[in-house]
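so my prof wants the structure for this chain in the tokens format not the other one, which i didnt know existed until like an hour ago. anyway here's the sequence
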Amino acid sequence: MSDQVDETRRWGLIIVTVVVSLVVIGVVGLGVSKARHPQSKSSQQAQASLSTQAPVKLYFESGSAALSAEAQSALSEVAGRARSSPAATVVVLGFVDATGDAEVNAALAKSRAQAVQHALEANGVEPLAISLSRPQVALGGTDPKEARRVEILMGP
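here's what i got, hopefully its the right format
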């Protein structure tokens, strides 16, 4: 009977040792991951810390996520400012109107915001410096083109 108790204790210690080892490895791995990839701010936190500088507004054709030549020029300027400030934070907000299919509008707003994000990255802005926000609804009384825009907010 004593041998059975000793064997049970031995297996219990082995299991506890394995579990503790896995927890330690997980904690160390998480620490290394956070050190290598600093956590980006959420869109709301990033927006709150942004400067009071006016947003850059980019307008799109109805039903399209293609960047115009004017938008590409503006993105080049934003990318230059972001590259010159290593601590820069760029928040990209897509807008939709309240009419039509909400899912289609949200998908189009997301596609537009992603087109802006990809253009900024192609212009040398670090991906971790860019934060996409959920589509915002452009409320009534505005010019219809306001619902087909993406705004870029930039912090220090």
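also thought this was worth mentioning. Residues 37-51 have pLDDT under 50 and may be disordered.
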